[in-house]
Design goal:
about 375 residues; alpha/beta; Arc Repressor Mutant, subunit A; Nucleotidyltransferase, domain 5; 5-stranded mixed β-sheet; 12 helices; globular; binds zinc ion
Length: about 375
């Protein structure tokens, strides 16, 4: 094996070992060796390196399974931190997370207008203030990267913002603008992604839920979006516009959508459940669920379009699970989830498909952003 290949192999092994440790901690060296499939010598050498870099710590003594009691390993949550920003229609929220993706600092405030002229400065200001706050408490902390969740099309490779219905903005180089602001300052790698993609990533193998490989995450709110995860990876598509569930045409004579087409799922659902933002939307779903007038009159029709949209996606992608998130999940009852699940099952070939709530409590977008930022960092160390 050439020196370059050996270095690449060690980096891949290191990255894989950290991910296993994060999933299983606290864990002994012997268990980690078994789970990773690597040799004890390789595991031992990588563990020593990761301890010296303060990515992991020896966290105590575990229970004996016959021999000497093992030293347990856990992530070192003091040293490395990620910054995650969620730009929503009315607000910019941000957080600092540690290696376990726990939020250690948050900051947010209302979106400023015009968005194109202000958003980069807005994000940079929040980031700076959070950095100062966290460093004041923890002088050893290092920031490893930043992830931004954006409500619309994002060209992930270039960091360019594409079309969105939320703001009048497109073809905007957000990553370039952030880099310009950080010129001469401490720069961070910046990953920008669609917000639903980040929420979907939070539900995957690195998330809190089941070790899923093939699933759909659908964000049901004022805007309908989603992500398709196949074999553990988000499907971006040829022009990075995959997962736009909201623009699936479900009624060719339906209401006009902002995209110019008629009868997109977003437009049809918004006609049945009028709202101007996610907060209104959750309130309307809540009234619909509780049977208050007038939304309840159209509840059956609303749910019918929801399951038609989901069933079409299930027939296309054959997922093991559909996670229905967004403001809908904050207020919809278990009975509504069961009703959507049984309707989807009846209209697809997958009779055992499950439709569930997100496993992540709070913001899956912030957690997904943390997973992405750390994942890119692990691939480089
Ligand atoms: Zn549309």
């Amino acid at each position: 094996m050439s020196q370059g290949n050996a270095q690449l192999m060690r980096r891949l092994n290191k990255s894989s070992l950290i991910r296993t440790l994060l999933r299983c901690a606290p864990v002994s060296r012997a268990k980690l060796t078994k789970l990773s499939g690597l040799s004890p010598t390789t595991v031992s050498s990588i563990i020593d390196e990761l301890i010296s870099k303060r990515l992991i710590v020896e966290s105590g003594i575990g229970l004996s399974s016959g021999g000497r009691r093992p030293v347990m390993l856990a992530p070192d949550t003091d040293r490395y931190h990620a910054i995650v920003v969620h730009v929503a229609g009315d607000r910019v929220s941000s957080a600092v997370t540690n290696l376990r993706h726990d939020v250690v600092e948050t900051l947010g405030n209302p979106i400023r207008q015009p968005v194109r002229d202000t958003i980069a400065d807005h994000i940079a200001g929040l980031v700076e203030e959070m950095r100062v706050r966290v460093r004041a408490r923890n002088p050893v902390c290092e920031f490893i990267g930043m992830a931004v969740g954006w409500p619309g099309i994002v060209h992930v490779q270039s960091g360019m913002i594409g079309e969105t219905s939320v703001f009048e903005i497109s073809s905007f180089d957000l990553r370039g603008e952030l880099a310009r602001l950080y010129h001469d300052k401490e720069t961070l790698p910046v990953h920008i992604d669609n917000d639903a993609n980040l929420a979907g990533i939070a539900e995957g193998p690195a998330g809190l839920g089941e070790p899923l490989q093939n699933y759909l995450y659908i964000q049901l709110g004022y805007q309908v979006g989603g992500s398709v995860v196949l074999n553990g990876n988000v499907l971006y598509g040829h022009s990075e516009r995959a997962g736009e569930f909201g623009h699936m045409i479900v009624d060719r004579k339906g209401p006009l959508c902002f995209c110019g087409n008629r009868g997109c799922l977003t437009a049809v659902l918004n006609e049945l459940l009028p709202a101007t933002n996610d907060h209104d939307y959750a309130a309307s779903v809540g009234r619909m669920v509780s049977g208050e007038q007038p939304e309840c009159l159209r509840m059956d029709e609303y749910l019918e379009y929801v399951y038609i949209g989901i069933a079409s996606c299930v027939n296309l992608f054959d997922p093991e699970l559909v996670i229905l998130g967004g403001p809908f999940s904050d207020v919809a009852s278990d009975g509504i989830y069961e009703s959507v699940q049984s309707s989807v099952r009846a209209n697809t070939f997958n009779r055992s498909l499950r439709v569930t709530r997100p496993s992540v409590e709070g913001s899956g977008i912030l957690r997904g952003g943390s997973i992405v930022a750390f994942s890119e960092f692990f691939d480089c160390i």
